[in-house]
Amino acid sequence: MINREELFKSLTEAFGPSGFEKEVSEIMNKYFSLTGEVVYDRLGSIICKREKKGLKIMFASHMDEVGFLVSKITKDGYIQFLPIGGWYPQVLLGSPVKIRTYKGDFLGVIGTKPPHELPEEERNKVVPIEKMYIDFGTFEGFDISKEFGIRIGDPIIPFFNYQKLPNNLHLGKAWDDRFGCAILCELAYALKDIDHPNSIYLVGTSQEEVGLRGARTAAEFIKPDIAFAIDVSIARDYPGYNTKETPERLKNGCAIITYDVTMIPNIKLRDFVIDLAEKYNIKYHLTTIKGGYDTGAIHLKGIGIPSLAIGIPTRYIHSHCGIIAEEDYEACLNLLIKICENLKEFPF
Ligand SMILES: [Zn+2]
Q1: What are the beta bridge partners of residue 309?
Q2: How far is the CA of 298 from the centre of ligand 1 (A)?
């Protein structure tokens, strides 16, 4: 049996901005190797293979999270940084972060002035990321780059410890897309007892947040017939949205992505999955999103690969921590299991 809270804790707290996903792939490897053959592509994506004679079906969840990279170390030992992936600067000031250098991990904070010190016109402005800095405990006479081994190009992530909330909700860093990584770990385990007619490839991809890079090489490696991305969708059930009308709410099941900016899904595949959810009474809703998914890169491989992205509604993605509901996670996992059992042939 998989201890789900342990899985959530280890995956959401893992260090893994784009290009630095090793710690995440090591966790996934522990689960993947229980059930299939594990291989890697040369961009760091991890692939669990369960090969049979039928269709080759790829499930991709990206391992990387949005983070930062050291761009400059000031004379006083403050660290300036670049964003890795999409950040809204407003969520950053005053937030704790962790850097990984060749000497280890160190905690710091993105510094900010107190409001009393800001003139009225500055108080209402968003500070651009280029003007922010991180304080890792710098002090006169302490050469922080030497002591901590900080180099330009070192990776930094938001720092947050996973918490279980009431109502079966889970608060954690990097649900985008560690929830997908967790689901693939559980799916790997479930596949042991499932009679699936197809070749299944469970993939933790690298570098999604910087342009779907790992998905491209992993798909090249696998050459799937069908592909799915398992990734967050946007919850629109909190202040600032029309919360009465939105179907994109926590506990409204699995999200089937009918449109994103990188792909219009294969319609037959989309309808096949909707029919499956209906048939097995798996809660789902349809959504659209202005971002992109790994399937955006995968579906363009070769002569085209029928693909679909499936998610769960998630609050506050691309910030220090977000919230998911366990019911949606389970709905998504169940739907993937049904896909593995039922997707025997595909009318290309
Ligand atoms: Zn994502």
Answers
A1: 229, 257
A2: 15
pLDDT in tens, 142-189: 999 999 999 999 999 999 999 999 999 999 999 999 999 999 999 999
- HSE of 211, CA atoms in CB hemisphere, 13 A: 0
Q: Where in the chain is the domain with CATH 2.40.30.40?
A: 67-158
Dump pLDDT digits (tens) for 279-315: 999 999 999 999 999 999 999 999 999 999 999 999 9
Q: Tell me the CATH architecture of domain 4-65+173-342.
A: 3-Layer(aba) Sandwich (3.40)
Distance (Å) from CA 293 to ligand 1 centroid: 7
pTM of the predicted model, to two decimals?
0.96
CB atoms within 10 A of CB 115: 8
How many CA within 13 A on the CB side of residue 59?
31
Q: Residue 51: what pLDDT?
A: 93
Is residue 205 pLDDT above 90, yes or no? yes
User: Which secondary structure element, helix H or strand E, spans residue 84, and what is its range?
Assistant: strand 79-84
Residues that are catalytic: 208
How far, in Å, from the CA of 177 to the mean position of ligand 1? Answer: 5
Q: What is the DSSP string of 94-127?
A: T-EEEEEETTEEEEEEE----GGGS-HHHHTSPP
What is the 118 CA–ligand 1 centroid distance (Å)?
A: 35
Residue 312 DSSP SS3: coil
CATH 3.40.630.10 in the chain: give the residue spans: 4-65+173-342
How far is ligand 1, taken at its centre, from the CA of residue 193, in Å? 29
CATH 3.30.390.50 holds for 67-158: no
Region 34-44: mean pLDDT is: 94
| Burial environment of residue 282 by CB neighbours within 10 A (0 to 12, 13 to 18, 19 or more) | buried
- Check pLDDT > 90 for residue 115: no
